[in-house]
Design a protein that fits this description.
The complex is a heterodimer of chains A (329) and B (136). Chain A is mainly beta. Helices cover 5% and strands 60% of the residues of chain A. Chain A is globular. Chain B is globular.
Chain lengths: 329, 136
């Protein structure tokens, strides 16, 4: 943790501009290097469990030079977690600095770009902005966690076209192990995926499909296929988001469906309410659930989020109350 | 001419002559751009064009012309753009540079390939290319 604080202090001492604004990062002198970071802490209450967690502390470094740009993100995932049940108290600490993202981009021209390294799989809308402070709710939809690998380590080829609408295609290619296998929802050594995005005015539609090979999980299928269809409508004061997807192995359906629809309303820029209805069935974990999420977020300024939410599950023991504070700096 | 038409023209024409007109302008070498492409350049979705690095230039935050531009071309309010650039910071993208006055933009654009900004129409000169015009 001290490494991150020291790096940030060093950047402050090199900082060329006079004004620092939260959520914008800062430039190290006049170098093509911008530094930023984020943290998140949350509290969860369930009928038989209370958990206090300091779960994210991350440092970002990025910049660009000519046609190249880069991103490096290192994170302490679970700095401290304390869980109290009627039977026992447990404390968890992971002081390993994980590689969350590390990639180099090459912009060939206005249409084509190539990325090499570890990156957020550009699948759906949630997975592109996965950190607490940028999410609309403290929790994230189950569909973003069980259908596809959140991170890909390899190549990403992108094509973008602008005429009267934006068309964007991403091809994800991984044929090697992850930079940091512990830091992904699936341990994989292969991932091939495609994403098609159509965006016009306030609408965006996205179709995603892919295949990945899972490691170290002999009980479960290793060759998995997924698809996800996403839609978003964003206006000045409200927003709708919906995603539905499924996952298969060679022989069976592993996740018949995982879907959600979410509505968000900005009462003001500071006060935001949202409701999410989710449902999923997962044959691998033999679980299915329907979840209603009612959330309120207070953002005194955009890079600071104080969130509360209540989750009502069809499995009532899973009902929970969440509070979190998160900051992007 | 009917009196009612004369009255209409007498009342409306002076106001229409007073309507402020603005333009998105670039270095003269820039190719023609659609409104969506201009939007994508100011949102830093397009950073290269014909092998030239693009340099979108904003006026300072809350400058009245900047607010008009953001409403007309980007279709986003000041606060929505602030949240957009916070998200882009996480994705490794920086907002366009800002200049204090239209005079600075006027001086900058003819000298720098790939530069693009917006001005009151009376500040546009023959060293710039008009990409888009709009009025109040």
């Amino acid at each position: 943790m001290y490494k991150i604080i020291l790096l940030f202090l060093l950047a402050f001492s090199l900082h060329a501009e006079n004004e620092y604004e939260l959520g914008k990062g800062l430039q190290a002198g006049s170098l093509p290097l911008y530094l930023g970071g984020y943290f998140s802490a949350d509290y969860r209450h369930m009928d038989e469990e209370d958990r206090y967690r300091f779960d994210d502390l991350a440092l970002l470094g990025y910049g660009n030079y000519d046609k190249f740009s880069y991103m490096a993100e290192f994170e302490y995932k679970t700095l401290y977690s304390y869980t109290k049940t009627q039977q026992e108290d447990t404390t968890e600490k992971d002081l390993t600095l994980h590689i969350e993202r590390l990639y180099l981009d090459y912009n060939y021209n206005e249409n084509y770009a190539l990325r090499v390294g570890k990156y957020n799989s550009p699948i759906g809308f949630w997975n592109l902005l996965p950190i607490n402070v940028l999410r609309q709710t403290t929790s994230y939809p189950v569909s973003t966690d069980i259908l596809f690998p959140k991170f890909t380590t390899g190549l990403n080829a992108a094509y973008t076209s602008y005429s009267d609408c934006e068309l964007h295609v991403d091809l994800m290619l991984q044929h090697n192990e992850d930079f940091d296998n512990k830091y992904n929802n699936y341990k994989i050594d292969e991932h091939y995926g495609i994403t098609l995005l159509y965006e016009k005015e306030n609408y965006a539609l996205k179709a995603n499909a892919g295949y990945f090979h899972q490691l170290e999980n002999l009980e479960n299928p290793q060759n998995l296929y997924y698809y996800l269809v996403s839609a978003k409508y964003e206006a000045e004061s409200y927003e709708f988001l919906a995603e539905v997807g499924s996952q298969y192995s060679q022989n069976a359906t592993t996740t018949p469906y995982a879907a959600y629809i979410q509505g968000l309303y900005r009462f003001t820029q500071q006060h935001i309410g949202s409701i999410r209805l989710e449902s999923y069935k997962d044959n691998i974990t033999n679980s299915d659930d329907s979840i209603s999420v009612f959330a309120y977020t207070y953002r005194p300024i955009y890079p600071v989020a104080l969130k509360s939410e209540y989750q009502l599950h069809s499995i009532s023991t899973q009902n929970q109350l969440l509070f979190s504070i998160s900051v992007l700096f | 001419m009917k009196p009612i038409v004369q009255i209409f023209l007498f009342v409306v024409l002076p106001f229409s002559a007073l309507a402020n007109e603005y333009a998105v302008v670039s270095n003269a070498k820039m190719k023609d751009l659609t409104r969506l492409e201009i939007r994508a350049i100011f949102l830093k979705k397009i950073t290269l064009l014909d092998d030239t690095e693009l340099v979108p230039i904003n006026l300072e935050a809350l400058d009245p012309l900047r607010l008009k531009f953001e409403k007309e071309l980007l279709g986003m309010s000041f606060s929505r753009l602030k949240s957009y650039w916070t998200q882009e910071h996480y994705l490794g993208h920086r907002p366009p540079i800002s200049m204090k006055s239209q005079e600075s933009i006027k001086a900058f654009i003819p000298k720098i390939d790939g530069s693009i900004g917006y001005l009151n129409i009376e500040n546009v000169n023959e060293n710039m290319k008009i990409l888009y015009r709009w009025s109040d």
